[in-house]
Amino acid sequence: MYSLTFKHSLAIAGLAIGMCHAAVAFAWEPTKPVEFIVPFSAGGATDQMARSIQGIIAKHNLMKQPIVVQNKAGASGAEGLLDIQNTPGDAHRMVVSSSGLYTVPLATGLPFNWRDLTPVAMVAQDEFILWVNSDTPFKTPADYLAAVKKEPAKYKMGGTSSKREDHIITAMVEKKAGVKFIYIPYKGGGEAATQLSGKHIDSNTNNPSESIAQWRAGQHRALCLFADQRSSFKEKVTETQSWADVPTCKEKGLDVQYQMLRVFMLPGKVPAEVTKYYTELLQKVVATPEWKAYVEKNALKSTVMVGDELRAYMGKDEQAHREIMKAAGFLAQ
Q1: Number of domains in the chain
Q2: Do 193 and 204 form a contact (C-beta atoms < 8 A)?
Q3: Which of 42, 95, 136, 167 supports an S-S bond with 37, CB 3.0-4.6 Å?
């Protein structure tokens, strides 16, 4: 029987160690700056989140290459979606998106399908709030909707783009409450917040992060949260209120709920090791104290999904949007 000599053993051990080192050395990682494509304007919730994650990655040295955030908000986000779709196999670009992945194609007939991309990770779900200017007398959704009902098509509701999340919520409120708004689309939540402060619109359905500065400054009043339960964050944001103090719309007699995913997607046809790299990167990000603080500050719902679970969720979420948009008359003909 053949037996290994000590010399042979050392040689085989050295070979094994060398192979392990080679595997580590050849593990994929970016070789140039990575683009975060934001298909919305600067200042909105998605843009803020992308830039916050960019800062967290840099602070903790989670990636050797830098991240560049690119805003491509043209055509209600279609520009950014088509841009990422048209670069299959590019391992140095990711789109940072939301339910716009479904709503834009459904509303416009855009030749885009999120299944042609590569899902990486959902990092959170975003909430929506019914906001009014603090100078108005409206203290509850019922107060505001009663005024809207008395004077149909007078009150202006602002939001990001047409036939997108804010417009969908507006349509849901109209149907549930039997009212009618003049809907004013803007390029992003930052602009919608500014227009409400200037009293150019009467209300908006911004995410918490898009109106937190105005809320803290006493310019905006949060009437209700479009969710099934109140926020869990109890630290005061204004002098008197925390996010947890904002009642749900259902509590106040307006049974409308809507939450939006925050998701990172690579182009299609990227190697599995690329997806693995970015999935692990984002899992490191959401484990940092800075991300946890960001989630609390902006009243996000901490929901992390990857892999098959994420794909299944997105399939169901897309179908839910199709049904809502059909009821609102928003589907492309």
Answers
A1: 2
A2: yes
A3: 95
Same domain, 136 and 241: yes
Residue in this structure with the two tokens 């803020």, named with its chain if needed: 48
Give, as one character, the DSSP assignment of residue 188: S
Backbone phi and psi for residue 4, each to the nearest 5 degrees, phi listed first:
-75, 140
Confidence category of residue 10, pLDDT binned at 50, 70, 90: very low
Q: Are residues 118 and 264 in the same domain?
A: yes
Pick from 38-47, 56-65, 299-308: least confident: 38-47
Q: What angle do CA 248, 249, 253 make, to 5 degrees?
A: 125
- How far is the C-alpha of 257 from the C-alpha of 130, rounded, in Å? 11
17 within 8 A of 9, measured Cβ to Cβ: no
Together in a domain, 225 and 154: yes
Short-list 148, 138, 140, 96, CA closest to 117 = 96
Q: Which domain holds residue 292?
A: 34-126+260-328
- Sequence letter at residue 115: R
Residue 156: closest CA among 129, 175, 184, 122 = 184
Q: How far apart are alpha carbons 122 and 129 in whole angstroms?
A: 21
**Is the C-alpha dihedral spanning 220, 207, 159, 177 positive or negative?**
negative
Residue 13 has pLDDT above 70, yes or no: no
Share of the chain above pLDDT 70, in %: 92
Residue pLDDT, tens place only, 147-184: 999 998 899 999 988 999 999 999 999 999 999 999 99
pTM over 0.85: no
CA distance linking residue 6 with residue 10, whole number of Å: 6
**Total length of the chain:** 333
With contact defined as beta carbons under 8 Å apart, do 208 and 298 qualify? yes
Residue 282 has pLDDT above 70, yes or no: yes
Sheet arrangement for strand 118-126 = 67-71, 34-38, 93-97, 260-266, 118-126
